[in-house]
């Protein structure tokens, strides 16, 4: 049985690509090593996680990405930034749609990220000088 390595992977035209429609944009699972990797608390407002990019399934090139269709809106006190950062520089194939949110809840800043390429992550940071979650009770 022959094993395929990621670096020598070829996508044949007869093979159906793995696509994930999000807000009418089809994201390509064949271009990433792992779909929606868990990034812990690393929330990226912009950029691309190139370590997870195996190469474009359409043109087979592994190059930098173009950031397109960037939009920012505020909804109920929450800032939502979306863009198609993961557009192949060579053939303009859409690899993923990136969504980043920022909000302030009580005494905390909350961040989330969701992207097929960059992964999923969330983080909460106190806006107070001393984080109340880190305080120890003195009895």
TrEMBL record:
Endpoints of the signal sequence: none
Keywords tagged on the record: Activator, Developmental protein, Metal-binding, Transcription, Transcription regulation, Zinc
Record Gene3D superfamilies: Transcription activator, Churchill (2.60.40.4240)
Family annotation (InterPro entries): Churchill_sf, Transcrpt_activator_Churchill
Entry-linked Pfam families: Churchill
Keyword Transcription among record annotations: yes
Gene Ontology molecular function: any one: zinc ion binding
GO biological process, one term: positive regulation of DNA-templated transcription
Keyword Manganese in annotation: no
Membership in a protein family: Belongs to the Churchill family.
Name of the protein this chain belongs to: Protein Churchill
Organism: Prolemur simus (Greater bamboo lemur)
């Amino acid at each position: 049985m022959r094993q395929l390595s990621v670096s020598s992977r070829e996508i044949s035209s007869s093979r159906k690509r793995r696509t994930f429609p999000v807000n009418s944009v089809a994201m390509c699972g064949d271009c990433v090593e792992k779909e929606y990797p868990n990034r812990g608390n690393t929330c990226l407002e912009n950029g691309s996680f190139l370590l997870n990019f195996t190469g474009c399934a359409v043109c087979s090139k592994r190059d930098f990405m173009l950031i397109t269709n960037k939009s920012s809106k505020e909804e109920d006190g929450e800032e939502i930034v979306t863009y198609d950062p993961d557009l192949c520089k060579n053939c303009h194939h859409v690899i993923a749609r990136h969504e980043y949110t920022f909000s302030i809840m009580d005494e905390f800043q909350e961040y989330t990220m969701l992207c097929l390429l960059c992964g999923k992550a969330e983080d909460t940071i106190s806006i107070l000088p001393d984080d109340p979650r880190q305080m120890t009770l003195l009895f």
